[in-house]
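Have a close read of this protein, sequence plus structure tokens, and explain what the tokens say about the fold. Thanks in advance:
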Amino acid sequence: MGKASLILVLGYSALLLMSGLLMSDMSVQAYDNAMTYYDQESARNIAISGANMAANYIFLYPPLINGNAWFNGYTTPVQFNGGSFVVTVDSTTSIDPLTGDKRLTLRSVATYRDSTATVIAILRPSNFAKFAMYAGSAGSSVYWATYDSIFGPTHVEGTLRTTGYPYFGGKATCKNNVDSTSWSGHPIFNAGVETGVSIPLNRDYTKLREKASAGGKSFTGNDDLYLHFKGDSITYKRAPAGPDTTVLATALAPNGAIVLNNSNGKLHVKGIVKGRFTIGAIDTQSTSRGQVVIDDHIRYNTDPRVNPASTDMLGIVANQKITIADNNASGGGPNFTVMAALFSYAASIEVENLATRNLGTLYTYGGWTVNDIYATTNSSITKGLKVNLRFDERFRTSAPPYFPTTKAYEILAWYE
């Protein structure tokens, strides 16, 4: 064997030795990586579990609602699945930029051996503006039929009854079940349907009333109240013939809350809304009180369908019915446009003179929350108003100021 051959053999031997060492290191490193990944995933799963447990508690016992005490979370480490978690809840970290309302921030921190993981959830008070259509218990006897279309979330606090092929573009939920067997055809649920979901209608106007009295505008007295939104200003009067009072909208109600309370008068509204407002007829003393009449079209100054950055937003709250006035006589034409989230606690949306007014369409951009559902046309659909209801997508994450809530919280964001 020559000198060159000896060097070659020694070189190969050295390479094989180095290769073996590297392979051994790689195997050890791969094992360490696998263990680290396992520990991190275990910690993450424990953090998720802690967040889910705390969110479920908040859902069942919403803090400071219905007499429930504040919930601090699980501040003492909870042993779970080989690790532990701690959950804290605060109401100061996250604030709604539009309403100023405090949200709940739920922070779940988990430990598994040397790994830690954090899950953060933001919860907000759930409100009825999040529905394109909410039908209360009285509305659960209504059948949804072919050509009925709802483009947004729907809830029925009872049985969702259908005949033919009604279309539900957003997720549909109902307290009981879906009755589509009594008649021909089947409903179309484009975003799914969930049964066994109960969201009772309630009329807690406390916050709206308090905000109207401090930072907004509260009207009393037994005369009707007429509000005419005119962009930057609002004209109001207490009788059809006036006199009119015109003020800057931001001066009349800086926080956007305007109510008629302790009154047997009706609240009339129309015009062009600029800014964020909720108006309400919230007298609950009898069925003849707490009514709203929409006298003519009411639209946003900046249409959010054209400019999604629009901050114009309106809520209309009535303890009893909301009437769509017959504006044909005043030259309003057969169609009627309402941009707002409508809330009628004890009644529904009523179309005035539906048996005699020229056939048109009621275009709603926002949503309806009603206890009952009234007919809007005559039986032959030759008079009255057909309904075209489009959901305002902004209401998924925001709402008109102090709009009635469901007295529960819902998850707005979830970070892992």
Q: What stands out?
A: The longest helix spans residues 3-60. The helical segments are 3-60, 206-213, 249-252. DSSP finds three helices and 29 strands in the chain.
